[in-house]
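Entry 14. Structure prediction run on the chain below.
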Amino acid sequence: MAISDFLTVMSEHVEARPYRAAKPIILPETDDDDLADVSDVLGYAEGQSFMIEYVDSRGRGSARRVTVWSIVAGAGGTPCLFAKCHERNAMRQFRIDRIKCCIDYDGEVFEDVPLFLRENFGMSLPASLAAGLDKDWARILEDVRVHAVLIAAVMRSDGRVHEQEVEIGLIHLIAVAERSGHFLDELRQASLQRYLLRLRPTDSAIKSAIDSLIGEDKRQIERLLRVCVAVMDADGKRDVREKAAINALADEILGVVVV
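Output returned:
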């Protein structure tokens, strides 16, 4: 599988509906249609997916599944999620100050929305929204992001994610963070695990991660590829899609096939 074919497959995964709704879906008849200029990007996303409960400009409530592509500046500079709404099957924009809570696919509800978004995106929020947040988390995410995106891509390439795959990926990301000078306590390790589980990498996120690795320390790249193989083997079988994904990554970064 060429890298272009792999990116197409992963794009199809992201475009597909998430596995399940953690709460009942609620939609108004129509949505707000005032999209900001999406070129005014405040932060990037890698395809994180979850549910939100949202109140629009007319006071109408909704609960829907989204996959986030970026953080953009809305009216007056208010941060907004630019995301695919899986109920509308279309891109939508959601003001952060109108999101009442976020719900992950395990059904856990996060009412501290700024903290949830900081945990997932490491984004810089206005002071009015960012009070009390962990200032180091953005740097931790930045240091592990490339590896997390590619591990998540391999994890999801066969359409299933197993507990052992997540555990192997998490151990590697903790090691990457520690090599970058970050000590992760149990709470941060749990946050990192949730971050990995919520990733459904977009094709652009995967391509950006690959570009970041080209020319980097070959030993670090080989270590990442070994982890990807361990992720593939975690459920006791080598799915052809996982194998193709790993070979596509290895060929693009190192010019070799590894499995």
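The longest helix spans residues 137-156.
Filed with the rest of this week's runs.
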